[in-house]
Amino acid sequence: xxxxxxxxxxxxxxxxxxxxxxxxxxxxxxxxxxxxxxxxxxxxxxxxxxxxxxxxxxxxxxxxxxxxxxxxxxxxxxxxxxxxxxxxxxxxxxxxxxxxxxxxxxxxxxxxxxxxxxxxxxxxxxxxxxxxxxxxxxx
Length: 139
Known about the structure:
Distance between the termini: 39 Å
Helix content: 25-40%
GO molecular function: peroxidase activity
GO biological process, one term: response to oxidative stress
Region (Disordered): 1-24
Organism: Flavobacterium circumlabens
CATH superfamily of the largest domain: K homology (KH) domain
Protein name: OsmC family peroxiredoxin
């Protein structure tokens, strides 16, 4: 299976005083506010690190549900918190915290499947992917 998803960011002004918006193809984010305060302080809106945390927690949790199903389990509830740490301009740590209610599974087996999900979910593997860039300067 191959598909492409899109998002768009727009920014006006300087990094400190400017502001922007982020929108997604699905319109779940539709001109969501982005600013210095939303990224580095406590402003209303979103930021890249929060979006990475959302993407990673969603990807991991869905991957785990597939693995559990393949192993014959039906999860009642999987809740994953992802904490993304930005330090000196670099993401230095992503902590995934899973709480799962899976009837009939042993803790060791859930641990094993969760470790596998962490290793194979596409967002976990993202940093090992090819990155391309095209640039167009408009007047």
